[in-house]
Amino acid sequence: MTPSERLARFLVGFAAIFTVVFLMTPLVVTVAVSFGSSTVFTLPPPEWSLRWYDKLAQTRGLLPALAVSLEVAAVSTAAALVLGTLCAVALVRGRFPGRDTIATFLVSPLMLPGLVIGIAMLQGFKAMGLRDVHGSLLVAHVVITLPYVVRTVAGALSLFDFALIDAARTLGCSYPAALMRVLVPSLAPAFLTSGMFAFLASMDNYPISIFFTDAWTKTLPIQMLQYVEEQPDPTIAAISAGLVLLAILALVLGDRLVGLRKLADF
Amino acid sequence: MRAWRDPVALLAVPAVLYLAIVYAFPLILLLLKSFTGPAGLTLQPYVGFLSDPFNWRVIGNTLRVALWTTLVCFVIGYPAAFALARAGLMLQIVMLVSIILPLSIGVVVKAFAWQIVLRRDGVVSELLVGLGLWDEPQRLLFTETGLVLGAANIFLPFMILPIYSVVKLIDPRLSEAGATLGAAPLYRFSHVVLPLTLPGIVSGVAFVFSMSVSMFVIPSLLIGDRFQTLATLTGRSFLLMRNEQLGSTTAVILLALAASIVVFSTWLARRLGGDT
After folding, report:
1. Rounded to a whole number, what is the distance in Å from the CA of B272 to chain A's nearest CA?
2. Which chain B residues touch A115 with a CB distance below 8 Å?
3. HSE (CB half, 13 Å, CA atoms) of B204?
4. What pTM was estimated for this model as a whole?
5. Homologous superfamily of domain range B45-271
6. How far is A202 from chain B (nearest CA, A)?
7. How far is it, in rounded angstroms, from Cα A247 to Cα A243?
8. B113 and A264: CB-CB below 8 Å?
């Protein structure tokens, strides 16, 4: 090995380890704090305890907020999967002008400041006469989830060989049956990846949700930020640890079903 | 216009119509409102906003923090992307998990974690004292350095992944060919590897910069109200001050900033011949 090769190898190793430690630090710290007995985030904690997990049950507003977040994420992801897949088919298979522009338009909510979109929607919905907070929240969240589905499903469709559908029909499948038995299974990884990221993006969203909340409708991030501002104690760390666990489960599932490397495709 | 008769195009109608009503129309309304005064079209809100030196400080804060965050992300993320592409199988899996896992966790959780990390008795302070770089523990929370560090941590995956997606396509034999022809390592890097990774750099930088410009939760938790950026000022003027005029003005400036980053980076990526 030449000295420069050895240096290159050392740098790669150093960069890798530094990145892993840097990225994992906040997660490890949160989980560690959540199992400590100290009220003031001392690390390492003087004693290990589960008191913050006990306190979770008494934290008011937590479960309703979780329920709202899960419901909104599930409904908006399902809606995005339907709307987004139809649109992706049109973008990949259609022969009409302006497809690039339409694709950019559909993905653009990902690239613009969420806060600005939220403010615009707040005023726009008011102008259109939509006053129901819960309904507005659902309608708004489809805008968050739709870009993920369009982007990923269009990408997968452009790699799909449509001759396979003709082959299935030659072999006696009806057109809908051919779609269901050939196209849908080969798009399954794309549905899963985009569905997962869309769901998580909706669960996580703060800047748009903040404009569609009232005393009864609060999503989890909004309720959590309120706790952080009002009474910052490790109960929040316990909630966070729960969410970390949820993310790990999603990741294991994603790895089993489509592979880790596919999830990193950007 | 026979092309329009393609029936497949109709499948795009529901999604496009939905976004047009729920997303594009409100944005256009916001734009129009911000240019409308009591006496019709006006630039008055913008002239008023820009003639206040405080607001220039806000714009300065926004751009400075975004630039530093992007720089830190790039300095860590560029070598990390190479490490990810060249690492052995085990290390690669560990790296992938540590990149994707934080991506699947909410920004409120991560910003809260950084509140703990940046305390006077936090991990960063103890590390720097332990390394002998600091004489005594210091609080990084509620400082600009702390904000940049936290934001860079949260946005880092968005720098690594686009660069990784081009690095993994580079044929290592290209660099070896350069070596055979007598090029020094540094020359090989700057003339072979760097140009090939430019499209990835452009998209990573554009991602991180535009997210840093418009971040709202991270500065609220890591630096507080005394430090205002365009995004926090926009949020505050709607949520706390109920000053919709000011909020609309800053929102449109923020929108213009974000849109120009997207347009410029797309143009640049296309010029560089990348298709990312």
Report:
1. 19
2. 214, 216, 231, 234-235, 251, 254
3. 31
4. 0.92
5. MetI-like (1.10.3720.10)
6. 10
7. 6
8. no
CB A159, CB A92: distance < 8 Å: no
Query: What does the domain layout of chain B look like in residue ranges?
Result: 1-34, 45-271
**Residue B12 and residue A87: Cβ atoms within 8 Å?**
yes
Chain B within 8 Å of A124 (Cβ-Cβ)? yes
B196 touches chain A (CB under 8 A): no
What is the CATH architecture assignment of A62-217? Answer: Orthogonal Bundle (1.10)
| Long-range contacts of the stretch A69-73 (C-beta < 8 A, 24+) | A69/A202, A69/A203, A69/A219, A69/A220, A69/A221, A70/A203, A72/A137, A72/A138, A72/A141, A72/A202, A72/A219, A73/A141, A73/A145, A73/A199, A73/A200, A73/A202, A73/A203
Cβ-based contacts of A97 with chain B (< 8 Å) = 3-4
- Determine the Cα–Cα distance for residues A231 and B247; give it in Å rounded to an integer: 28
Tell me if A266 and B161 make a contact (CB, 8 A cut-off). yes
From A20, A113, A240, residue closest to B95, measured CB to CB: A20
- Test B95 with A19 for CB contact under 8 angstroms: yes
Distance between B262 CA and the closest CA of chain A, angstroms: 7
ipTM: 0.91
pLDDT per residue, tens digit, chain A (266 aa), is 678 778 878 888 899 999 999 999 999 999 998 898 887 777 777 788 888 888 888 888 889 999 999 999 999 999 999 999 999 999 999 888 888 899 999 999 998 999 999 999 999 999 999 989 999 999 999 999 999 999 999 999 999 988 998 899 999 888 889 888 898 888 998 999 899 999 999 999 999 999 999 888 899 999 999 998 888 888 888 999 999 998 899 889 888 888 888 777 75
Chain A nearest-CA distance from B70, in A, is: 16
| Residue written as token pair 């302006």 | A98
Nearest to A43 by CA among A60, A57, A31: A31
